[in-house]
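User: quick one
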Amino acid sequence: MKIFIDTASLNEICEANDLGILDGVTTNPSLMAKEGIKGLDNIYAHYLKICETVDGDISAEVIATDYDGMMREARILAGIHNNIVVKIPLIPAGIKAIHSLTTEGIRTNCTLNFSAGQAILAAKAGATYISPFVGRIDDINWDGVALIEQISRIYAIQDFDTEVLAASIRNPMHIVQCAEAGADVVTCPLSTIMGLFKHPLTDIGLERFLADYHKSQA
Ligand code: E4P
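Assistant: Done. Structure below.
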């Protein structure tokens, strides 16, 4: 399973990349806004910086919601760097755009996925990735991880090539559960990736080893 970081913060991207376990980056307009990046030219320049920092797939989202607008933006985004994957919303014009972009050889990440039926449409259109939003489903008292499991099962039965990219990951257990459910990728905030390290017995054990070492050297 690949691990992507879900942020537009270059500091956080560098910190995760330094761990040596990072496979890519996802962003969205909200994450770009959080970094205070304004104007399409600055946004495109920021995507290039991210691509130059991480050697892996970098998802860059379109702003347009009509077919022609999405196609225009997608071609610009794909021209920024070979590693750009264009993020397209799961709406009828988006599915049509994904189909056309796939024909042109432009890779896509179909975003805002909340059901297995939607995920079938994305796979039929040829999306490179489908992004089911685990946390946002849990937020409304449904089961986000169950959706990952269902889509992974359908894609395996139907032999679809689209990869399941579990998004909206909120805690380290989501990562573990998505791995068990068959996700190909999880995209998570830095704090959630760092949460995977946490175990009190690791800290206590290390403290004891060091204390014993220092005692023996006295
Ligand atoms: C990533 O591709 C999604 O845009 C992101 O994971 C959404 O996460 P959120 O639900 O925490 O905003």
